[in-house]
Design a protein that fits this description.
By secondary structure, the protein is mostly helical. The protein folds into two domains: 30 residues, no CATH class; 76 residues, no CATH class. The protein is built from four helices and no strands. The longest helix has 27 residues. The chain is extended.
């Protein structure tokens, strides 16, 4: 299937089906302002957890939020996806912290030979047996 080449001034494909147009219209009608409290609150509500662990991540989160909120070129639908990513990562942080609390012995595990894999996402690279 060929990609659609006709785009309007807003870079939205004029051939896209109505579900996509509807999602874009809803996102533009309800602009999002990303906030630290909103993201962390949504993650806490979704998981039922509240301990994010060490607080050092908050400064980095605020910088990222400020950068994304300051981006005047971002489409409303893109901001919706960005919000989803931030909530998902915050939920993962809560879940990891909960596991570490329930199993403190994890901190005593020794990693003798770390494996570091570097590559582009979805580029076909796979983990292979390295020993």
């Amino acid at each position: 299937m060929r990609a659609c080449q006709k785009e309007s001034k807003s870079m939205i494909c004029v051939r896209c089906g109505s579900p996509m147009r509807n999602a874009i219209a809803v996102a533009e009608a309800n602009p999002l302002e990303l906030s630290e409290e909103g993201i962390l609150g949504a993650a806490s509500e979704a998981t039922g957890l509240s301990d994010f662990g060490p607080e050092d991540f908050r400064e980095r989160l605020r910088r990222l939020i400020n950068e994304w909120n300051g981006d005047t070129q971002a489409y409303a639908l893109s901001r919706t996806f960005l919000l989803g990513y931030l909530i998902r990562y915050a939920k993962n942080r809560l879940l990891i912290q909960d596991v570490l609390k329930q199993h403190p012995e994890i901190h005593e595990e020794t990693i003798e030979r770390p494996i570091i894999v570097v590559g582009l996402p979805h580029s076909g690279g796979r983990m292979r047996r390295l020993w």
